[in-house]
Write a structure and sequence with these properties.
Four copies of one chain form a homotetramer. By secondary structure, chain A is α+β, with helices and mostly antiparallel strands. The first copy, chain A, contains 17 helices and 23 strands. In chain A, 56% of the residues are buried.
């Protein structure tokens, strides 16, 4: 997952992008960059780490100009090194351009080999760089022609921001996997991954960019193009489950409300007799509140989350093991002692943390621990921008629900059903990508891609 | 406020202190240090910033030995510079010693002048250094004699850890202002400001150090001394209100439970007709849950707290003002829209943040905003270790509750009463210091100290 | 000017390159890089500053493999930023390659525009990158074919090292502007800009790479190719005058001896009655010794050079001006007082330092100051790798010798003649480039290049 | 050895001290500090490394005020850590003071034990700190009284600068071991270890501070005091031999001239038939020029010294050994080949470098190598501020001249005689300390000190 944020025509453009990236920090903590334009040149600052660290000594006066784009990286493809931090900025025949990409391309490997055979030299290992090279070699007359040329050749998930000396371009692939919204503030335009950043800077939400839409923002205003062949829609349901902030509206509805409804439906599907409902903080809070309502059980705060566990934590020596979860989450004994506890989380991926949480609650004196998960079992890897582990590491891929329960040492374990989950959103169910739950990938793969992506390499029996 | 943590006789002593300081990070974020002893020498590492930042590249093998103490600094007295980071380590006639101090001395200025007149040279501007110099000049035969000599001369609040080559000493002043607890793990002893750190490292709580007690931990085990004249007890009620973590037991009872009871009593004292109760996260959560129960109103999560706002945030330019609160706290519009909202916080000091919160909730569409505070109005500065502003800056010192309500633009504003607050704890009310609410300071001041401490300097009309 | 150094087949390859770059530090102090190969991959470390600073904390174990090349950058073309530090390393269709370039291309601008028009994306602003792109787009069958293809299109001065996974290639342009020598040590091959680095690492000089020669060093040994059309030779006489170290052999002869002869001839051409000859240290020392011999005057050490003036010196405030020269060079009053002094330097470029030196000598009590320069007046810019200022800044371009003398405030000023200078070398005079003295550039320019290079832009009257 | 520099009453005081420390860099490269005074407070900046590195990003506006002192540290006593970098700055009963010390105290250990017994707490391990504590505990009425009190108790070598809010004090011990000179510039006063720094900043030399003199510089001007019991003078002859810059006047005469005379006398004492005289650069240059004159042999430049070998050089791996000398000094083969060479150096301490130099010259083709040393054999350690090794490591302490010659593999080896050396200076011979050559220490030692200083601990048979 990544976060992207762009501003066109504001005297504090790069400062606003900084604030926007800060508000999108949850979408990527590995590295960030900002590129600005003053109408003649592009200016770039990048770094590894959190937005606040990278830019703490930054001199924003170096990021000149009234337009800017930024990117928070959450590694999906390509190693974690400085060269891979976006936006990618290049000089090419027509001038300069910078690109920020949220999503993942499935045919990047193939396109890169082809481009290199014709003499292109790549700077990074990120898939997004093929888009840049395809623009550079395009014979398109205008920049927009070149962008369309390029995007017609790539396959996969992409919400994009492209900044040139004079224009800010926003794109959402025809499936609409990743969100991208347009806002306005005092005559300036904003493009962002999540609407909560509009609130942050005091901008007004205008509308979501449509699946398959390109918007070109320039001195002529906002122009919209729909140059791609229409496909089905495939919005990522995980944006609602986990990625987006609860104070955002994503794909047209409130993330908090969707999560709460998921908790409510989960309670209706699989309630259990218990004394209290507690969330795994902070991501499980809305679902736990919904579960409390749906299940008619009192909500309490049984686990404290530390504010101080960041990226830089050093793991202590082997001789003092297993501190990871305790440093981040600590039980409140008084709340849990002697109780039958329902603990609600948004999802289970590997199961490692969940197991520690169950054991922590039980050690604090809980009589029973019932785990409830506000998403279905994650059984398939994502190829559209979420950095899921390989199938081998997904606990639901290799274990039944009962096996997982035993592994977690929970008294009961229940997941929401795929149907239940899709009832929580207002859009029609077929507009969402739920491939990580049922393996039905919206984009057909070629055999080559299946091999490249290692799609089924950890399963002798492809499903 | 500060946090202190010590370990005696554990092969991973400095690593455990690191974990302990991490778990006490909320008690001080300005700087931290660890000093260890290998029986012959002391080893020291210090830094400015968060524990995880300071020790991220630390080589713990340099902090040799089986005993160690650590300190998180929250500046109370003395400027914020490296030299003031504790533990203070010195060489003196008998060898080496290191000191970590939680609290504040009221006669430090006087003692320093006196010591300097006799030729002592101070390294720092922290009040705690006078204790060290008094030990160095003492003619006491043993180290313990010298410590007692020294402490008989200082006046104020102190929970102390002192490490020498061979011993770990823990002290709590006779008033018992600040907490200090003793634990045990595999034959090692632990001293800590808060019991939640025992859970963190898997240690067992033994007992609180008593007001006026000195414990000497050495190869002979734990020896207890009560060398000071007995005084009244004066435990700091603000530990329960705000400072301690909810998962700690402080002064013999669960912080979470006390906070919850405060919220419950607050609801009973000043309920209002409303649709939902929301906390100011995270410190207002237990009180809001208690209020929800006491007031019979549904609890919800109306404000999201960002995990990424740390110390290093750069304030954007003047032209983009007022982002401070928004970056840290963001409203969930869907929860608040059209509702009559009770918002619960633990305390109000200056009122600046509360005002922004009220306005944020109202802008999100709330019909009414009722602010409820789970502590009485803070009207007097603290001289025992809490870094309160001067009286001029305390909003409750210069404004009535009604004036404050108007300033915050809330529909109603109510505080818990002092009596109500003290009903939430089990110990008898007279054992607590509530000077910040009623101005009745437990330690009598000399005229000199009144002048030095600027006790009444911002009021022409001392109360 | 730049320095390049390569090693093939030595277990300490990158360590030897580090030592080699250290010994070539005088050829470039702006930044350095090392790229190594372990037969499968290339590994790269670069930095801004001196070799010893860049690699002081370097982990040479990361520069794996038995072959490596390195480069010291002295900016000639392209801004001073990290991205411009060489070797340039890229991945392209056939694998990886790294390039280190000493010299300057005159048609780089034209080639870059052409390559960009076909879609190439450049990473840096250094001229050398065009060579890389020309290799990447070449349809040549072997890597050597591609290199030859590429070099047939570039025009200018180049001594090159190219490292691939399996080969080390050395090239010298057909004019032979810049030196490049081949050495051997325990079965390993070394390529270096200057032979003094062979002494440093204990290697044996084999021979100079010939003008127009390509050597390919691989497991098959050293193979030599002469694929380019023969041109005249044009070895840079400034290597002897200033750039190379006196302990190097360049273009087949001892630099120290050439400089000494230049001083001797200078004395024969323009002796003056005086008491002592002193050098401007350290570059003027050999010529001053030669002058002392040629003029029959005693040599002395009248100016001390500080060892501690490096790149990082901060200029003090405006109010304390003119310290630059004094911090680097200080007069020895006792030596100069009351004397008629001949001061010998290797060359005058802008004249700023010379003027300060004359005034410093005179203020120390010298009765007369006679400046003698062991090279002719520098009147034309260099386009082959020496970073001379524009014509406007060359004092000899805008002033006669007499005007220069008056500017320097010297009693007399004499330069060696072009003919005298060329008598100091053994090779025949027409094999040297002396364009900076007489404006006769060995490579014909196109009109386009004349405009791009700003060749005559500061003179209304091209000569 | 250390360097000290002070300025009183100049608007650019700290900037001038920075320049002064730069010009005294040769006297200490381990660390430096500057302390300034604005009449009310002292301001301090310190660091490890070279002056130019430490202050490269320094903000001189933080070093406020019109007076300042600085210190370059060359470790003599105390470990190499930040805390030991001078000036030492403290607050004490009367205000603030800063101390910079060149020299070494012989009774520091004894005084420190005594001071600690009375309760003093030391911050560092440098001997100079006892002076500070003795000032702090003195009952003297004025600051000057306290300084005199303190210095009457210390024994050893000291040239001192002491800065308070209002005064700059300069002191030279009664033996006059280390230099200290007073200068003047536009109404400001300068105190410096070496007069060459007056030239550097454009100041005028007034006079040397006398042995046993204290000067107090304040708004009242310069006041002089001679409060100590008169002793013999014992100026360090090594200042002339090696430490001071040749462009300085030290103890009343030109260092360059003294060195040149030493070379001349050396040639007269021990000339040899040879073809050329070469120096070990740069320290051997003046003596080699003197030898050339005295011996009637031509002077040449047979060894090149690299400008780029600084503190930060990383030693390459064991497998590529013995590069140390080669990286710093490289022979000029053309000069040495087939010659009988006299090589002149200022002194031999351990003999390691000399051995490498002899072998390097011989490998370059010299027929004979005659080593000549412009100081007598160093046979005893210095206790007055020069960081000589223990007796065991001094080659002349354990080997005869003939044994040393064999070790160096020189054809002949001759040192100047003690009498010859003392003929090179104008002051009478008995005014110099030559203890390192003959073991006659000017200050009598107590038995305690003999043990503490390990004076004879490496010889069973004290001489």
């Amino acid at each position: 997952m990544c976060g992207i944020f762009g501003v066109f025509n504001h005297p504090e453009a790069s400062n606003l992008v900084y604030l926007g990236l800060h508000g999108l920090q949850h979408r990527g903590q590995e590295g960030s960059g900002i590129v600005s334009s003053d109408g003649n040149s592009l200016y770039c600052e990048k770094g590894i780490g959190l937005v606040s660290e990278i830019f703490k000594d930054a001199d924003f006066s170096r990021l000149k100009g009234h337009s800017a784009i930024g990117h928070n990286r959450y590694s999906t493809y390509g190693e974690s090194v400085m060269i891979n931090v976006q936006p990618i900025v290049v000089n090419y025949a027509l001038g300069s351009m910078a690109l920020a990409h949220n999503g993942n391309l499935v045919n990047a490997h193939f396109l890169r080999s082809e481009l290199e055979a014709y003499g292109s030299i790549f700077q990074s290992t990120v898939d997004s760089e093929v888009i840049i090279h395809l623009i550079a070699i395009s014979k398109g007359r205008t920049f927009l022609d070149r962008v369309i040329d390029s995007l017609k050749r790539v396959k996969g998930a992409y919400s994009l921001l492209i900044l040139t000396e004079k224009e800010l371009i926003g794109v959402r692939d025809s499936y609409g996997f990743r969100p991208l919204s347009l806002g306005e503030m005092d005559g300036s335009y904003i493009l962002t991954s999540e609407s909560s950043t509009f609130d942050l800077i005091g901008a007004k939400f205008i509308r979501d960019i449509l699946p398959g839409e390109i918007v070109v923002i320039s001195d002529r205003g906002v122009e919209s193009y729909m140059p791609f062949t229409k496909t089905r829609e495939a919005m990522c349901i995980f944006e609602h489950i986990y990625f987006a902030r609860p104070d955002s509206y994503v794909f047209g509805e409130s993330v908090n409300l969707v999560r709460r409804k998921m908790g409510y439906i989960l309670a209706k599907e699989s309630n259990v007799e218990a004394d209290i409902v507690i969330p795994v903080p902070d991501s499980g809070v809305p679902a736990a509140l919904g579960y409390s309502e749906g299940g008619g059980l009192p909500y309490d705060n049984g686990i404290i989350r530390s504010h101080y566990v960041g990226r830089t934590f050093i793991e202590p020596k082997q001789s003092i093991r297993h501190f990871g979860v305790r440093l981040k989450l600590n039980p409140v004994r008084e709340v849990l002692k002697g109780k039958r506890v329902v603990v609600v989380d948004d999802s289970i991926v590997r199961g490692t943390t969940s197991r520690k949480i169950v054991s922590m609650i039980r050690e604090s004196g809980a009589r029973e621990v019932h785990m409830r998960i506000a998403s279905p079992p994650v059984r398939f890897p994502c190829f559209y921008g979420i950095d899921t582990p390989t199938r081998k590491e997904l606990i639901a891929s290799k274990s039944s629900v009962e096996e997982t329960r035993r592994h977690l040492t929970a008294d009961t374990l229940e997941y929401i059903s795929i149907e239940g989950m899709l009832k929580a959103v207002s859009s029609s169910p077929e507009k969402f990508c739920v491939a990580c739950f049922n393996g039905e990938y919206p984009i057909p793969f070629t055999n080559e891609e299946i091999r490249q992506l290692g799609l089924f390499d950890d399963s002798s029996d492809p499903e």
